[in-house]
Write a structure and sequence with these properties.
There is one protein chain. α1 packs parallel to α2 and α5 packs antiparallel against α8. It is built from 8 helices and 13 strands. β3 and β4 form a beta hairpin. It is an alpha/beta fold. The radius of gyration is 19 Å and the shape is globular.
Length: about 240
Amino acid sequence: ILFIGTGDIGLPSLEWLINTPRHEVVGVITQPDKPVGRKQVLTPPQTKVRALAAGIPVFQPLKIRHAVEELAAFKADIAIVVAYGQILSRAVLDVPPLGCLNIHASLLPRHRGAAPIQRAMMAGEQRITACAMAVAERMDAGAIYARHDFELGATETAGELHDRIARDSVEMMLQTIERARVGAIIGQEQIEAHATRAMKLSKSEAYVDFAQTAQLVRCRIHGLAPWPGCDAEISGEPIRLL
């Protein structure tokens, strides 16, 4: 297995793959190290840290579409892609013979994009569905192989739900890998007419409109936690809502 991922949501899957004798992780592909914080300290992704600790080769191409030969050199049967951060070209997708699989935290084709959990919560949705799917050239547009529903807790934040989905989607991914291995994988194509976008969050969205219903106000506060947070002004005083 070739693991392609940068975001922390992929860590539980990577951890399980590393620790199971059923599969061999031949390499981890992740984004280049980036400067973090006020001092802009060059910091590696946690997927890189975990891979190196396990003695797994790490490759950090600036543009993965230009690294087809390097990817092929890993000789992987299948690739698992979780929150990598780049669109994969057709040439990249064709490298592993069993294809590339992905976990996306929404009821596809709704909420394709970078912030599906937050956007669904902010809209007042009480159930979030994670999908195991084929990676396609268009963002989150591949065939769906499996789904798992997550009921939203009354006080759960987007960050807490993110961690729960990361942890509890591992078994769904492993079952999908096994079906692919034995040639028993069946995908359901998405209906393009029903597709919606979950755009990346920005700091400019860190506000709440108290003219909305109490439930939507609560959903927005929880959906924007921990980042970018939620600011308000009460009696002329700026506050941060937690």
